[in-house]
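Revision sheet: structure tokens.
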Amino acid sequence: MQSLLGATFILAVSCNSASVSDGANKSNEQPDVRCIREICTVRKSDGARICYFKVGCIQRDGWDTLPEIKFWCKIITLSKDSVLANVVENRKGLAVFSKRIIDSLEQKGHLQRFRDELAEKYLIDSTLHIRFTSGKNHFYRFDKIGDNMKRGIELFDSFGVDPFYAQSVLLIESPGSNKQKSTAGAYGNFQLMPFVARKYGLRVDRYLDERENFDRSAYAAAMLIKEICIPYARKWCETYGFEVDESALWFKLLALHNYNAGAGTVRGAMAVLPKNAQGNDLIKSLWKTSAGYFKSEAQNYSQLALACYLEFEKLNLLHTEETRVPYVKY
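Predicted:
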């Protein structure tokens, strides 16, 4: 019987190639012990200027080398006409295939056989599962984020909220000014739910939806993070015996989980985490924890925050750097 893998592999790209970074080319220089935080401005070839918030400890602490982050870096740069074969349990990327071919195999009832052949080729344990995830570069248009990033950074800073949160939410929720309404009803650049928007004074009714107003929705998002997401991240850590360091990147990622899933949902996941999962390990444990409504989408949120930052920064490195201003608040 002819191998499906052999017939299909002409359109595949192995994820063991240089197309997915494995961190092998990292500098041997000793990293700074601090988390470098700077407001950077770069100039594109067309004269436009992009402002972004540089977070040096993402690379310093090795987040960029983790399979979960490398997986999302691949997905957000991959065409929607392609799929990445990957291992569900550890996010290991195997190879890229045409979505049309994978769909055809599924329609013919051959997809499980194809999975078995992939498992044999890549020596995947039989207890693990292979999934095909479609590319999303049509959504993650970081080249079109324009002035929103600069404005978001300025507004959050003026509201007394770390601009890291503005940048992270914008990169995940509305790159390229995408403002689609989610199935849950979230809308606008900061993907606010109607009740959250109204809580912070925005008008949301059949005649007017102020979530479309960037400045107004930025205010509501900043207040949600300041009054709910950060305080409850601290509260859940204290409640369940985890250290608290509001200046640490891992804590900010935890607050982002509150923003996405809701503090109550995150509480359920925190309650079942092993108590030795402190600091960065707390976030890595959350990625593998399901509890109540805290499932796949909620697990993914901080993974996406890190991957989006890395790909956005990579894009900015192609432009001319003009200024860097140290940022030490929050």
